[in-house]
Amino acid sequence: MAVGMLTAxxxxxxxxxxxxxxxxxxxxxxxWLLALLPLGLAISFASHAPLIASGNVFSESNPWxxxxxxxxxxxxxxxxxxxxxLITGVGALILVYAGGYLAGHPQLGRLYAFLLMFMGSMLGxxxxxxxLLLFVFWELTSISSYLLIGFDHERAAARSAALQAxxxxxxxxxxLMAGLLLLGQAGGSLELSTLLLQADYLHSxxxxxxxxxxxxxxxxxxxxxxxxxxxxxxxxxxPTPVSAYLHSATMVKAGIYLLARLSPxxxxxxxxxxxxxxxxxxxxxxxxWLALTQSDLKRILAYSTVSALGTLTLLLGLGGTLxxxxxxxxxxxxxxxxxxxxxxxxxxxxxxxxxDVDRLSGLFRAMPITALAAxxxxxxxxxxxxxxxxxxxxxxYEAALRAPAAAWITAAAVxxxxxxxxxxxxxxxxxxxxxxxxxxxxxREAPPSLWxxxxxxxxxxxxxxxxxALGTDGLLSAAGTAVLGETVSIHLSLWHGLTLALALSAxxxxxxxxxxxxxxLLRRLASRWESLGQFGPARWxxxxxxxxxxxxxxxxxxxxxxYLRYYLMIVLVATVGLAGAxxxxxxxxxxxxxxxxxxxxxxxxxxxxxxATMGTVLARTRLAAIAALGVVGYSVALVFVLFGAPDxxxxxxxxxxxTVILFVLVFYHLPETPALSSSLARGRDAVIAATxxxxxxxxxxxxxxxxxxxxxxxxxxxxxxPDAHGRNLVNVILVDFRGLDTLGEITVLAAAGIGVYALLxxxxxxxxxxxxxxxxxxxxxxxxxxxxxxxxxxxxxxxxP
Amino acid sequence: xxxxxxxxxxxxxxxxxxxxLRRSLxxxxxxxxxxxxxANLLIFTAGGLTRAQPPIIPPDATALPVSSADPLTxxxxxxxxxxGFSVLAFALVLFHRVYQTSGxxxxxxxxxxxx
Lengths: 801, 115
Prior knowledge:
- The complex is a heterodimer of chains A (801) and B (115).
- With 801 residues, chain A is an all-alpha fold.
- Among the domains of chain A are: 276-517, no CATH class; 601-670.
- Chain A is 73% helix and 2% strand.
- Chain A has helices at residues 5-25, 30-34, 36-53, 78-101, 108-127, 131-149, 156-187, 192-195, 199-203, 208-222, 231-234, 240-249, 253-266, 270-292, 297-318, 320-352, 368-382, 388-402, 406-428, 448-463, 472-484, 500-517, 519-528, 537-559, 564-586, 600-618, 622-642, 646-667, 679-705, 713-724, 729-737, 739-761, 770-786, 791-797; strands spanning 58-65, 70-76.
- Chain A has a two-stranded antiparallel sheet with strand order 1-2.
- In chain A, a hairpin with a 4-residue loop joins strand 1 (58-65) and strand 2 (70-76).
- Chain B is an all-alpha fold and 115 residues long.
- Chain B has a single domain (2-49, 69-106), classed as Helix Hairpins.
- In chain B, helix 1 (2-20) runs antiparallel to helix 2 (25-46) and helix 2 runs antiparallel to helix 3 (71-102).
- The longest helix of chain B is centred in the last third of the chain and has 32 residues, at 71-102.
- Chain B is elongated, with a radius of gyration of 19 Å.
């Protein structure tokens, strides 16, 4: 391609960053300006369409994470081309529409940014050749969808809908990632172009079934298949341009794209056929039925989109030339008419203030352009000749008639199409005909930005099947070739003769009209079954979410008690358990045999420390505890003296003196407090403390005999004099070799000094309690002044090392 | 001697932990100090004990005699002692302040905190 695919994808992200600023600069017209990028991309893609149609495939690759086999490799074939054109073409119209729909909205710039970010992600998704790259873009579309659904983030409904969509699609995304990795493992490559050639090998691979199931979960969640369909109607909380773009024309097709893309590698087996057709068929029927039970324009369209996605899944599950042809045609047809109808729904909402079909009537006179676009799109959706929707429906009927279990599948398809035809009349025709009724806002024709999109999409749907110059046949053939893995040629024609499919089309139309006329009856019927909805998948989602929150709350209450000692206990028990288990299984405890060289004063010193330690623990008064602590400190300093560490000993003596003084200063004036723990708690703590002590003893005994690395001290011993010009190596290490450590230490000291100073200088504000205030005044006189000097010796201490 | 010190270190840790688990801020700080002693001795012992020369190069030599004590562990402990003291000083003053404000040594009495 003239413009690299990577560049095309990145341009969306770059413009997304610039969009808010641009929107501020060009008040009002930013949508038109921003639409130039997707329009340019669409033209660039379209200019290559003839080459693609004649069987060429473009690919490019840049190394990204070569160690993991992940490259920025992209591939443009018929299927990618079809979707790229939809993404960029519809994207341009949507940007224009959004500018009109949210004109003057303070956060319009952000909406532009999210939309462009989504466009870049979606382009990446359909162009990626590397499956991990595909996954990255897949998740990016989920995230942009989350941001767009929650665009109106001050409403709780929008937030929860956004979260629901994210949790469902990202949960499926996790399954997809696992499935793709398994597929890569089985196929020995992460490149789609390699994987797709190994169908037979993959089918017999033991990882085939697990990877198929996981990938299908990913595709079904993204494309709102039963039982994951519930997030799509909720996602209608998004502003209408978003619904039209993401939740109808493009993003929800990502799952369909994945199925189509992988069908040469994974399709053609019984497991594929059964799971994909069943889920697709159920979704198709359920979506069509639920569409009729709604009265909100957007929700009707959302459920009919669910149904259409089900149809696409069903067709891809059937496989074979006819079904794939039908799927490709239907994919395009649906994007055109459903995108147009969504835009019409948004325009109606914007111009009249209502989206309720029961409150909109006779609007043709007020909004003729919108009405015309809506009518054409609705007729296309209902499958009326000569519109594109008729062609694609005809193809699906033919595919259904030749499928295994043809009777069932055809019956389901006809039923769903009858219901959808009625839904099409309700959305696209009903609001514009009949007697005009007053609407919340007086109805007026929309500005060009609000009708351009629906008019373009609707008229494309009208002419695409009839006008060969648009190259529809070639493009659909190339897409079909990519999906089937073998060359097919699709030729759309309006007249196939008096076939069974034509008869079914007639049945559909008549049925649609009948259902449309009796829709009130159906709605009443449906409302009687409404209570069934509380057992549906949306309820499962709520229950799972509640359970998750409960679990999180429970474990937080259990682990996050807010008491220091319980935190300590958890940490200690875990450490003793893990480290102790490792030491017990892997460590070699050497039995101490060599007691020679032990002097009587060594033993005396250790006994002294032991006694002083016990004294610290058991002391009845604070002063006794402090005194015992001092004895421990001085005796430890003596240990340093005995074993060739005079510097350490000197520091320890100094510090210990300061410690004792500091303790006395702070605690001398405080009254004794009673022991608060019960004897049971004390016993428990003693056990924990004893196990920690035993572990540490064992640890030291093992550490003294194990030497994994040669000691680095030899380096200091050798280089101390020649390099650092010092004979006291401890000093040399502190000020020279590890000088930065010492700087850090001084910083800690300074920070602590500042902290101490601040705490001493800080004046406590006026207190509420009188009792504690009295106690405080008694303290303040003696302690506050006396404790001031402690900052000074501390500062001197910085010089010691 | 290493065995004897290992037992001592164990006792210091146990005593430190026991004190830290008490419902008293004063004992918490005491425990901290004992724990610090235990940790310093642990580094000291793990580095290998020797009664020989301190790690100072004699005036007539250019390198440290082989039998000298390990200078690195000593440097580490020196740093640890000083940092331990600064933490202690801060903890003590903080306690002082807490006591002034709440009038109690009991951490459970503190109304403001992460509970």
